[in-house]
Design goal:
The structure holds 2 protein chains of 2 kinds.
Chain A (H helix, E strand, L loop, with lengths): L1 H14 L2 H22 L3 H5 L8 H15 L1 H5 L2 E2 L8 E2 L7 H15 L6 H27 L2 H13 L1 H4 L9 H22 L2 H17 L3 H17 L5 H18 L8 H4 L4 H22 L2 H29 L7 H7 L2 H6 L1 H4 L9 H8 L2 H14 L3 H19 L4 H36 L9 H29 L8 E4 L5 E4 L1 H12 L5 E3 L5 H8 L2 E2 L8 H12 L2 H10 L4 E5 L10 H12 L28 H4 L2 H7 L15 E2 L4 E2 L10 E6 L5 E6 L8
Parallel strand pairs in A: 5-6, 5-7
Antiparallel strand pairs in A: 1-2, 3-4, 7-11, 8-9, 10-11
Helix pairs in contact in A: 2-7, 2-8, 4-6, 4-26, 6-7, 7-8, 7-10, 7-23, 8-23, 10-11, 10-13, 11-13, 12-15, 12-22, 13-15, 21-22, 21-23, 22-23, 23-24, 25-26, 27-28, 27-29
Chain B lengths: L1 H5 L4 H15 L1 E7 L4 H4 L1 H9 L2 E7 L8 E2 L2 E2 L3 E5 L12 H9 L3 E5 L6 H8 L3 E3 L5 E3 L15 E3 L8 H4 L7 E3 L4 E3 L6 E6 L5 E3 L17 E7 L5 E5 L7 H5 L2 E2 L5 E2 L4 H12 L6 E10 L9 E2 L3 E12 L2 E4 L6 E6 L1 E7 L7 E7 L5 E9 L7 E10 L14 H33 L1
Parallel strand pairs in B: 1-2, 1-5, 5-6, 6-15, 19-26
Antiparallel strand pairs in B: 3-4, 7-11, 8-13, 9-10, 12-14, 14-15, 16-17, 18-20, 20-21, 20-24, 22-23, 22-25, 25-26
Helix pairs in contact in B: 5-6
The chains are: A mainly alpha, B alpha+beta.
GO biological process, one term (chain A): protein N-linked glycosylation via asparagine
Membrane topology (chain A): Multi-pass membrane protein
GO cellular component, one term (chain A): endoplasmic reticulum membrane
């Protein structure tokens, strides 16, 4: 019986028309790509467990849980008194709620359908799910730009491109996970709107833009690139009613919608970052009006009028802009934006921005690591776009060129570059393959017909060779992507793993050990001081009040903590008393060789601590040796060897043997024997140290009972 | 619920419980002496303690059966060390256990002398007081009693040297105090030590039999005769450099100063009585009974206050008077509303039932605040109370819905809407009419 069904099916397949086969094939490839993009992001879940990764995702998880349990209005009005003690933080007004709203809706819908699923699992699997959607949108976008074939190649490429996987593996529950989908969706809608010039697609683009605004601060990129596209179209003389309708609708509706996000508020009409879009909107109106006037006047009259109007308008415009900026009505550009334009800006001016590793300039090698063959296919794609210049191709060229610049400035923006790399490479690969495949086919058919050869010698062989080489490249790309995903981007960073001597996997679960210790052994209202990196995790996992966290909104407060860490015990005690600190938590890697510990981050604490008024006594050069080195061994500066951070990290460490053949107190990260071994803590007492000493918790002592 | 559980328990059990409660109510005081003769020489002091309800246990300081605690609970609330000569405590007693006893809330009265042993000196340094060198005595050639043997070590300290606190030393009068012993110096870094009795400005501390070759350690007003310490846990310690200060002989003695003034009785009796009441927590003890804070028109505290709320804060304080808690009334009690720095600091209005209250408006700054009451007065227990509350910003519904100055904008928005509507009507009809004329 089964054979008969099979044969029936086979016959059915054969009987399908060519269009149907085409559709089926496309559907199959696309759905396979979507499934692939979901499944290759599951390494970390399979290898460790279904946990939230890193730092920021813990905050997002906590807020999502709150939203799912308490409802939207209490989320919107949520004042969090557990973070930023004693300042507190208005969570509802200082986040992009798109991510939380998305997962809370998914959670509610699934539960309404009686698919009972935990909020945590929704959060863990949201990013992979959205990358599947991204795959589909990429197909449509590339299809609009070039052809369905290009769409399919781009879709498959984006499914596994490491630059995107790095931010969207299961458990990496962050804004970027859905923002890339929103961004590509907006682009798709925009391209559609530009192509059709209908209100429908423009409005859809505005809605997609709204979703993007609600989910990621990177929407600023979007609201600058679309006006830029319009501007280029105007300059190249491609401005048309379609573009006019598309942009005017998008700008008006999109701006009004984006102002509904309370974190964005009045920024779209008050900050310089959004002024470009506004200016282009004005230009659009003028351009349309000029076109109208031109159609009514003769050429000579028009020339005179045009010149007079343009010069007055430009002069007043510039004047008004300068005046508004001088009066402070238009906020000056924020530090993050400056650092986009001038990579050294942050380093020189704002230590808190420079201290984040993902704000560092990108190394050359990471382009290849994250994009592999796309790096080389990108210019080819650009070539094909230039060779057939249309409104929408200009857009993708712009997007590609701009994002490659930004990705070079900040590692984090590799994420924005990855999709356009995939699309352009998709176009390149598809165009080249279709050119050469045709030649293989042509030769087969032509051979019978005529000996009339083309311009090329051995066309068929060269074509075959080329197709083979291309296939090898694509296979290599696949292997590279899988390898990178598996090795580099699938570790949750909350659970660490290392290889033992015999090659077995050793798991360090110290973070959770410490957080659960805090949760179960400290008073409910205990205040924990730590460097801001661990803030979100402590609030989410230990449920304790913290002083500073990863939302680095208050530089002064972070600086105060930095000062406490960089001061001597007495000075630090004053600060800790002032801030009601009960426990202090430090991350220490000297025993295990975990290199991103607090001693390695310590210079940032010093810099940030010294960057405010109260911390002027903390000077970076005091923490260096006379030779200008940062060392924790005997040569190290006495200021460093006696500061609170050093003491908390190395308390009792001087008696510990870490490596065979080395003296006790041998730090395995810095690879030195520590300089100050025998000291006691006066104002702190050790409360807990985890199994591998990665997390150490100290309790702040009360004032002495009998006076000094 | 508990009473229902105990229903049916026999009467013996209840009696036992009653006995236990009674025993707990009495104050157990351990008195350590060098020789049991001290019981006789200091009988007035000890008797007054007994009369005030102290269960006295008098023991020799090197008694091998001494212990302060059993099974983790203290057997005594108070400790009197009238044993300046003891070289080594007996039993489980040591300087460490006594220090622990203080940190655990116990009160200690220590008296030294010229020949006080190292042990006592070590003990008093733990509470921020230093006794002068062995053999040194307080000497004053202007303030001595007529009964002095010529070395001028029997000091008639003027009562102006007493600390200005009625709670600690009783009502002020002009009668001098008799004192013979060593001088005390306090640790300048210790903010908790109180100078109960300062030496006269002409006094100094040196061995009376030796010629003075170097500058004395303790001189004049910097030297204390009696010092006190109220620890942060409110345990109280009094250190005196003179054991005789508490003796019957000094209490009953008459005083005659070289300046010619004479008094029938020394001031010692009164001061010793007051000081012992203070050190054993019979005087100057305050406690916070209850704290209450809420919005002015409500009675229950909210989960979080909102900025600019009108808040009422109440704190009930009681004072121990003759063994019973009575409402405390004072007009200098302040409340602070603190977020790192105090945003509000107000004096609370007292009432006759011990309830202090204050009404104020929460500042226009959100964050985590504390209601703080810190009441530190010399001689009284430290009152410290802090209650943490959150102050949140307005929710989206708490803002004004319509702002007056925005009326022109509302008007323009609505007129625009109407205008567009009318325009579209006109536009549509206008387009139709020419087509009609054409058709005609």
């Amino acid at each position: 019986m089964s054979t008969s069904i099979l044969s029936y099916r086979t016959r059915g397949w054969l009987r399908m028309s060519v269009e149907k086969q085409d559709t089926l094939l496309k559907m199959a490839v696309l759905s396979l790509a979507a499934i692939l993009s979901f499944s290759c992001r599951l390494f970390s879940v399979l290898r460790f467990e279904s946990v939230i990764h890193e730092f920021d995702p813990y905050f997002n998880y906590r807020t999502t849980k709150f939203l799912a349990e308490e409802g939207f209005y209490s989320f919107h009005n949520w004042f969090d008194d557990r973070a930023w003690y004693p300042l507190g933080r208005i969570i509802g007004g200082t986040i992009y709620p798109g991510l939380m709203v998305t997962s809370a809706s998914i959670y509610h819908i699934l539960n309404w359908l009686h698919i009972t699923i935990d909020v945590r699992n929704v959060c863990v699997f949201l990013a992979p799910f959205f990358s599947s959607l991204t795959t589909i949108v990429t197909y449509h976008l590339a299809k609009e730009l070039k052809s369905p074939g290009a769409g399919l190649v781009a879709a498959v490429m984006i499914a596994i491109v490491p630059g995107y996987i790095s931010r969207s593996v299961a458990g990496s529950y962050d804004n970027e996970g859905i923002a890339i989908f929103c961004m590509l969706l907006t682009y798709y809608m925009w391209i559609k709107a530009v192509k059709t010039g209908t209100l429908f697609w423009s409005t859809m683009a505005a809605l997609a833009y709204f979703y993007m605004v609600s989910s990621w601060g990177g929407y600023v990129f979007l609201i600058n690139i679309i006006p830029l596209h319009v501007l280029i179209l105007m300059i190249t003389g491609r401005f048309s009613h379609r573009v006019y309708v598309a942009y005017s609708t998008l700008y008006v509706i999109g701006t009004i919608l984006s102002m509904q996000i309370s974190f964005v508020g009045f920024q779209p009409v008050s900050t310089s970052e959004h002024m470009g879009a506004f200016g282009v909107f004005g230009l659009c109106q003028i351009h349309a009006f000029v076109d109208y006037v031109r159609s009514r006047l003769n050429k000579a009259q028009f020339e005179v009028l045009f010149r007079a109007v343009i010069s007055t308008v430009a002069a007043t415009g510039v004047l008004v802009l300068v005046m508004l900026t001088a009066m402070g009505k238009i906020a000056p550009w924020t530090g993050r934006f400056y650092s986009l334009l001038d990579p050294s800006y942050a380093k020189n001016n704002i230590p808190i921005i420079a201290s984040v590793s993902e704000h560092q300039p990108t190394a050359w090698s990471s382009f290849y690591f994250d994009l592999q063959m796309l790096t080389f296919m990108f210019p080819v794609g650009l070539y094909f776009c230039f060779s057939n210049l249309t409104d929408e191709n200009i857009f993708i060229i712009l997007y590609g060129v701009l994002s490659i610049y930004f990705a070079g400035v900040m590692v984090r923006l590799m994420l924005v570059l990855a999709p356009v790399m995939c699309i352009l490479s998709g176009i390149a690969v598809s165009s080249m393959l279709s050119t050469y495949m045709k030649q293989i086919d042509e030769v087969k058919t032509e051979k019978k017909k005529t000996k009339f050869e083309g311009n090329y010698f051995m066309r068929s062989e060269i074509a075959t060779f080329f197709v083979c080489v291309m296939s090898v490249f694509l296979v290599m790309y696949t292997l590279h992507c899988t390898w990178v995903t598996s090795e580099a981007y699938s570790s949750p960073s909350i659970v660490l793993s290392a290889r033992g001597h015999d090659g077995s996997r050793i798991i360090f679960d110290d973070f959770r050990e410490a957080y659960y210790w805090l949760r179960h052994n400290t008073p409910q209202d205990a205040k924990v001081m730590s460097w801001w990196d661990y803030g979100y995790q402590i609030t989410a996992m230990a449920n304790r009040t913290i002083l500073v966290d990863n939302n680095t909104w208050n530089n002064t407060h972070i600086s105060r903590v930095g000062q406490a860490m960089a001061s001597t015990e007495d000075k630090a005690y004053e600060i800790m008393q002032e801030l009601d600190v009960d426990y202090v938590l430090v991350i220490f890697g000297g025993l295990t060789g975990y290199s991103s510990d607090d001693i390695n981050k310590f210079l940032w604490m010093v810099r940030i601590g010294g960057s405010t008024e109260k911390g002027t006594h903390i000077k970076e050069h005091d923490y260096y040796t006379p030779a200008g080195e940062f060392r924790v061994d005997k040569e190290g500066s006495p200021t460093l060897l006696n500061c609170l951070m050093y003491k908390m990290c190395y308390y009792r460490f001087g008696q510990v043997y870490t490596e065979g053949g080395k003296p006790p107190g041998y730090d395995r990260v810095r690879n030195v024997e520590i300089g100050n071994k025998d000291f006691e803590l006066d104002v702190l007492e050790e409360a807990y140290t985890t199994e591998h000493w990665i997390v150490r918790i100290y309790k702040v002592k009360d004032l002495p009972n009998r006076g000094a | 619920m508990h009473t229902s559980m105990f229903q049916g328990v026999d009467v013996n059990m209840l009696c036992l419980l009653a006995v236990c409660v009674a025993a707990a109510a009495a104050t157990n005081t351990l008195v350590l002496v060098d020789t049991l003769a001290t019981r006789e020489t200091h009988s007035i002091f000890l008797k007054s303690l007994q009369e005030r309800g102290h269960e006295l246990t008098v023991k020799v300081a090197d008694d091998p059966s001494l212990q302060l605690s059993r099974y983790g609970e203290y057997l005594y609330q108070n400790l009197v060390i009238f044993a300046p000569g003891v070289e080594e405590f007996g039993g489980a007693l040591s300087v460490e256990t006594i220090v622990e006893f203080i940190d655990g809330g116990g009160n200690v009265l220590v008296a030294g002398s010229r020949e006080a042993a190292d042990l006592i000196r070590e003990l008093v340094t733990e509470v921020g007081v230093e006794m002068d060198e062995e053999g040194a005595a307080v000497i004053d050639h202007l303030h001595y009693d007529a009964n002095d043997d010529g070395q001028h070590t029997l000091i008639a300290a003027p009562s102006s040297g007493l600390i200005d606190s009625e709670v600690m030393v009783g009502a002020r009068d002009a009668i001098p105090l008799l004192y013979r012993g060593t001088g005390l110096i306090t640790d300048a870094d210790n903010p908790l030590v109180l100078p109960v009795l300062r030496a006269p400005s002409t006094a100094y501390c040196y061995s009376p039999t030796q010629a003075i070759t170097d500058y004395p350690h303790a001189t004049g007003q910097n030297m204390l005769l009696v010092a006190a310490l109220q620890a942060r846990n409110n345990a109280r310690v009094v250190v005196s450099g003179s054991l005789e200060f508490f003796s019957d002989a000094f209490i009953m003695a008459s005083v005659q100063t070289p300046q010619g003034a004479s008094y029938e009785r020394s001031g010692n009796g009164r001061v010793v009585e007051a000081l012992s009441r203070w050190v054993f927590m019979e005087e100057g003890v305050l406690r916070v009974v209850s704290i209450d804070h809420h919005l002015q028109d409500q009675s229950e505290p909210p989960v979080a206050y909102t900025i600019k709320d009108d808040v009422e804060y109440k704190i009930k304080v009681e004072r121990l008077v003759e063994g019973t808690w009575k409402p405390y009334v004072a007009n200098d009690m302040q409340m602070e509303f603190v977020r790192i720095d105090p945003f509000v600091r107000l004096t609370m209005t007292p009432s006759s039932n011990g309830l202090f209250s204050v009404k104020f408006k929460v500042p226009d700054v959100y964050g985590v605040y504390q209601f703080k009451v810190e009441y530190n007065r010399v001689g009284f227990t430290r009152l410290y109370s802090s209650t943490q509350v959150s102050v949140r910003p307005f929710t989206h519904l708490q803002y004004e819905r319509f702002i007056e100055c925005a009326y022109p904008y509302y008007a323009s928005a609505f007129s625009m809407m109407v205008g567009v509507f009318l325009f579209s009507l006109v536009f549509l009809h206008h387009k139709e009419s020419p087509s009609k004329t054409k058709a005609d």
